[in-house]
Task: structure prediction
Amino acid sequence: MKTYLTELRAINPRTGELTTFCGQNVRGISMLDAQVYCERHGLGYLTVIGELVAEIPCKEGTEDPDWDNMLNFDNITKN
Result:
């Protein structure tokens, strides 16, 4: 299965403005399947926005990408 990113729109409690927030990652065989999962499991407020293909951490104490420690989700789903 693939991993998908989600987002939600809600009122920011600090500013009172409508804001887009990052939601949790969900698994599914397709974007539609991931959205159906959200709706069936009480997460209907989340919108699936795309597939998560990699996470690239920063080098400690910097904002520089640490390519050596990249987590490639494409490789994970093939195992």
Remarks:
- The chain has one domain: 2-78.
- The beta strands are 2-11, 18-22, 26-28, 47-51, 54-55, 71-72.
- The chain has two helices and six strands.
- The chain has a mean pLDDT of 93.
